Amino acid sequence: MARKTREEAVATREALLDAAEREFRDKGVAHTTLADVAHAAGLTRGAIYWHFRDKAELFEAMCERAAMPMEAMLGCAGGGRCADPLGTLRTMAVMGLTRLARDARTQAVFDVMYHKCEFTADLAPVALRQRAADEGCRRQVIELLDQAVARGQLPADADTGLAAALLKAFMVGVMHEWVQDPAAYDLERMAPVLIDTVLAGLAACPPRRARRRKAAPRSARAAAA
């Protein structure tokens, strides 16, 4: 009997999280009440308070169920030196876009987090998790770009920090636009083409580090004075 109760509790919790995804996406987090979520799940507000302290905890649990694209990139990154750094970076970036394209839950939570939510103080844990994933991904991309420089895949003076920022801006822009209109094109099929395009641009004409200006000879400085 106790086992059945646990199973029912898990099913109730999942139903509430599913309803929260739908309601937050339809109405926005700020304009959705716990009563809205309970009604959408066919449950009472008491059921919500049995599982979640408040809306912020419900929101956090909803986000934790979904693996965000940057987390998917980190998951396939591996570590250490690799023979083909740009190839590894390509695999990571394609994986990030593919995760979004394939997983309806990832799409819903991404849309809620980036388009239907203001990260107020009570939602700070989710914002911190996302920033940590973004920072981890940024460091991994810079490391791969530095390896690409060392292996001659990029010029010696390539600005790898700026190149990583460029790649992130491209990917985030694609994800933001696509999740609002998934019918626009087949993201899973086009992900390799999109990533190949931006990586080809980086390889052909990457951002460069500013060269240090040489100091003028002492005689020239004296003459100028």
List keywords for this structure.
225 residues; mainly alpha; Arc Repressor Mutant, subunit A; Tetracycline Repressor, domain 2; 2 domains; 11 helices
Short description:
The chain is an all-alpha fold and 225 residues long. 72% of the residues lie in helices and 0% in strands. The chain contains eleven helices and no strands.
Describe this structure in words.
This protein is mainly alpha-helical. The chain has two domains: 2-64, Homeodomain-like (Arc Repressor Mutant, subunit A), CATH 1.10.10.60; 69-204, Orthogonal Bundle (Tetracycline Repressor, domain 2), CATH 1.10.357.10. Helices cover 72% and strands 0% of the residues. The protein is built from eleven helices and no strands. The model has no long low-confidence stretch (mean pLDDT 89).
Fold topology:
Blueprint lengths: L1 H26 L6 H8 L3 H7 L3 H10 L4 H7 L9 H18 L1 H12 L8 H27 L9 H21 L6 H18 L13 H7 L1
**CATH topology-level fold name of the largest domain:** Tetracycline Repressor, domain 2
Count of helical regions: 11
Low-confidence stretches: none
What percentage of amino acids are in beta strands? under 5%
Calculate the terminal CA-CA distance, rounded to whole Å. 94 Å
